[in-house]
Each structure stands twice: as C-alpha cells, then as structure tokens.
Amino acid sequence: MRVSCGIEREAGTGYSLCEEPAVVLLPDARLLAVMPTVTGRIYYSVSEDAGHNWRSPEALRYADGSDGVQHPKSPWPPRSVGRRLRVLFYHNRDGTAYGGRGAWDNDSRRPLFLAVALYDADARQPLRFGDPQLVCDTHGFGVGPKSRVGLAMYSSLIERDGRRVF
Q1: pTM for this one?
Q2: Dihedral sign (CA 7, 64, 123, 28)
Q3: CA-to-CA distance for 77 and 5, rounded, in angstroms?
Q4: How far, rounded to the nearest angstrom, does the alpha carbon of residue 52 sit from its chain's CA centroid?
Q5: Do the bridges between strand 158-160 and strand 31-36 make them parallel or antiparallel, or are there none, so unpaired?
Q6: Is CB count within 10 Å lower at the N or C end of the chain?
Q7: Cα→Cα distances 42→16, 31, 148, 163, Å
Q8: E-strand spans in 26-140?
Q9: What is the pLDDT of residues 75-119, one digit of tens each?
Q10: Please, what's the b/e burial string for 66-87 (b: 16 or more CB within 10 A of its CB; e: otherwise)?
Q11: 81: nearest Cα among 133, 29, 136, 157
C-alpha cells in the first residue's frame, strides 16, 4: 500500500510517498524508521513511544545540518551492529545516474555503498553517518529476462556466532 507521508512530491509526477520502511531499535529504546521515497532521498522518522506516534518525516542526512543521503526508490536495509553502531546500505545516487530518469528508474539502483553510523543521543537525527564506502557494483551488467542492472544490489548483513555475513 502506498500512502502519502507528508514528503515533498517528485517533480512531474504528483506523487508523495514513502514505502518499504525499515525500523531499527536505538540504544535509548526509541525506534528509528527509515524509508526510500520518490524524491531520490531517504527519509526517516523517530518514535519515542514504541511506534504509537512518529515525528514528521525528515530527509536523512549524514549528520544534523549536513547533506541529505541520496537514494532512489529502492528497498534497502539498515542494520544494527552491536549496541552503538548501525550500518546503512544505499546507492548514493538520486535516481539520475547512468541515464536514470528519476527515483523510480531501476537502472539507477547501482552501485551499492555502505555507511557506518554512530548513535548520537543528543542530535535531532540520532544516527551520525560516516563517509560512503563502495561495496559492490554490477558495472551495468543486467540479469534476468529484462536485463535489470540493479537487482544484484539488494543486500543484507547479519551477525551470527560473532561473525558478520554480507
């Protein structure tokens, strides 16, 4: 289901939506929901009451007052690593890279970057992200009958028995 979430509209479409939210638990028991949008940026919201109420969505930034994190409308999972670290997999592009036509364009879902975030209890945005690090890229090689170049960029990270698996 797509629901307007108070986020600016994508130019020329009239759409205002966020979808496929992912939620991480913060060390202070607040919840942080992050979601791709049609604006070419990730948005986030914070709940202080176990998800009953949420702040109005805001553009996710590397830190309070810094540049927004660019990402086309593509699913991506933030992950917790230990108590204070969170990692973010994202495309570091707004949807117009490699000839993409905007946040909806599947061809812009590459390459894949990783940013490590530290929890900052005193900041408005409770995660402060480090510089993006390139993880992998399809180099434009398509897969499947439609030769989609972004499908290989779906990622996950889990911890099992003290080891991290990508």
Answers
A1: 0.79
A2: positive
A3: 20
A4: 22
A5: unpaired
A6: N
A7: 13, 16, 22, 28
A8: 31-36, 42-47, 58-59, 78-81, 85-90, 112-119, 127-129, 133-136
A9: 666 666 666 668 888 888 877 776 666 666 666 778 888 899 999
A10: eebbbbbbbebbbbbeeeeebb
A11: 157
Write the pLDDT tens digit of every residue in 24-81: 889 999 999 988 887 888 899 999 999 999 999 999 999 999 988 888 777 666 666 6
| Residue 99, Cβ density class (10 Å: 0-12 exposed, 13-18 middle, ≥19 buried) | exposed
The residue among 130 and 77 whose pLDDT is bigger is 130
The CA distance from 137 to 21, in Å, is 24
Give residue 87's identity as a one-letter amino acid code: V
Half-sphere exposure of 110 (CA within 13 A, CB side): 18
